């Protein structure tokens, strides 16, 4: 038996809208610790890791860990029917093949419920090692989204380099080149405008812009986004979900290589 | 010709081993391509109308070059690294099969003549497909073209698909691109279908995973080889009256083809004479291939643009603009950095099978078994149903 009541129901919609273009079907795992989701896009270039803590819910009950497979596009359709201030309640039976969403308006004058069919999906899991990142950049989420959008109009790959002078985003394409540099700013009046760069070692990595742009769909979730980078490892793009958990994206870098011998080794 | 009915058998009994994916997802992968099979396909498909093939002004056939050039460009543009493997001398075991094909071709030749005389367009179409033959010239021209494109070429001592399989087994390449299912019988861990299909066909790429197939069928590789021989392969005939479904059932029951033959009633199911199944099994297990460590290092070079223009435009009447543009696209793709995959940083993916699904499938299997015990004609696969569509036409070889 699962029951979870969330006052800020719109948060769920924002999470699903942020990930549904990268992954079409996914398993949402529920346990006594909360909701979590790990999924990769079909080319295995990017990964989504989401966690919502049980204590963030007004009411949370999960008797037995369960895995609910669903089409994220369909889930988004259902969540779209919730009003922005609605309270959302999720219910599912242990061996059922549906999950019920109940939306209650704040004035309690309207109640709707939607039953979504579940799917059986084999999930692919990756063990993500704990990493000490060389550079961690926390910047306004809107600024990150804007950089991605601006650079996408020029090129399709971006080099992100973090040095003591700041973080530089560089791209080039048929029409020319573009550079955007973000500097540390901890003196801004509003906390939302601050940028914090924590640099242990300079690092530069190359990424496909379309994935980074897709991650920016999570912008409505948080004021800030954190990019964590280490040499020759995937970047982690993290959005905190208001005291409730996090939504993380991992993206494998592009590699300048001549020949990766044996790279194709069968597992 | 591959293995009779294997695709359907896998679809019905081990559909987990078949994955449909996008062409673009193979970026950065090294892939062994069964060249001889594809050349044959190109001759059939590319620009053919009735018995008229795509030719130069002097009447030399260029369908194979057209197909090879543009489809290979497509692979390279997507960041793949193909290595083409050509057939060598056919094995002695295949003699019977080849003789049969020769006979059929002669028949088709006669049929084509008759059809032309009577002007029956449909028959011309049908027979001309069957008269097509890959010659040494076709192969040599394709090799020359590929070398100019900077793509490595390997001559197999015998069967190309066996050579491809051994390279994939050794980890030199990720998988084998072919339409011939017997590549799995030769032990290729991954077989990739429709990779060379034209982009206009918008066909999803199918990847067969041998390990999953064996696990789902509950067979060892040597039992799988026996199963393929029973289904009907290029190297031995098949037992009349026993198709893929029965073959699987008997191999599961008796453990090997030898025991199956002992158990079968020879008056009801006489094995063909001769039936060199042991030789065929030995050939599938240890085919005549160049050991992977003796192969030259695989290298992908920049295309020789002038060489390509001289060959394709100068000798083969290709459109110069299109050739130059394609060469440009190859060069551009080569200069790009390769997109990495998360597995290469975080280690292999573990696939967690959904508990519900596993339970449901077990139930379906039990139900099928129970139905069978009752004497009903339910086939093991019927309960689950096949998910794989039948392969399209034109997948044959020679």
Describe this structure in words.
The complex is a heterodimer of chains A (267) and B (398). Chain A is mainly β. Chain A has helices at 10-19, 72-80, 141-152, 209-215, and strands spanning 2-6, 25-31, 34-40, 46-53, 59-62, 66-71, 87-92, 98-104, 111-117, 123-125, 135-140, 157-163, 166-172, 177-182, 196-199, 203-208, 224-229, 235-241, 245-251, 254-255. Mean pLDDT of chain A is 90; it is low at 259-267. With 398 residues, chain B is α/β, with parallel strands linked by helices. Chain B has a single domain (6-291), classed as Rossmann fold. Chain B is built from 17 helices and nine strands. Chain B is globular, with a radius of gyration of 23 Å. The N and C termini of chain B lie close together (8 Å). The model of chain B is unreliable at 376-398 (pLDDT under 50). The A-B interface holds A 27, 40, 42-47, 67, 69, 97, 120-129, 157, 206, 208, 232-234, 250, 252-257, 259-260, 262-267 and B 21-22, 24-25, 27-30, 168-169, 171-174, 189-190, 299-300, 336-357, 360.
Q: Which strand-content bin applies to the residues of chain A? A: 35-45%
CATH class of the largest domain in chain A equals Alpha Beta
Distance from N terminus to C terminus of chain B (CA atoms, Å) equals: 8 Å
CATH topology of the largest domain in chain A: Proliferating Cell Nuclear Antigen
- Across the major sheet of chain B, the strand order is 1-7-6-5-2-3-4
Largest sheet of chain A: 9 strands, antiparallel
Give the name of the CATH superfamily of chain B: 5'-nuclease
What would you report as the Rg of chain B, rounded to the nearest angstrom? Answer: 23 Å
Q: Give the integer mean of the pLDDT values of chain A.
A: 90
Instruction: Please give the largest β-sheet of chain B.
Output: 7 strands, mixed
Q: What's the SSE pattern of chain B?
A: HEEHHEHHHEHEHEEHHHHHHHEHEH
Q: Given the helix and strand composition of chain A, which structural class is it?
A: mainly beta
Gross morphology of chain A: globular
Low-confidence stretches of chain B: 376-398
**Residue share in helix of chain B:** 40-55%
Overall mean confidence score, pLDDT of chain B: 84
The total count of helices of chain B amounts to: 17
Family (chain B): Belongs to the XPG/RAD2 endonuclease family. FEN1 subfamily.
Domain XPG-I (chain B): 147-219
Protein name (chain B): Flap endonuclease 1
Keywords (chain B): DNA damage, DNA repair, DNA replication, Endonuclease, Exonuclease, Hydrolase, Magnesium, Metal-binding, Mitochondrion, Nuclease, Nucleus, Phosphoprotein
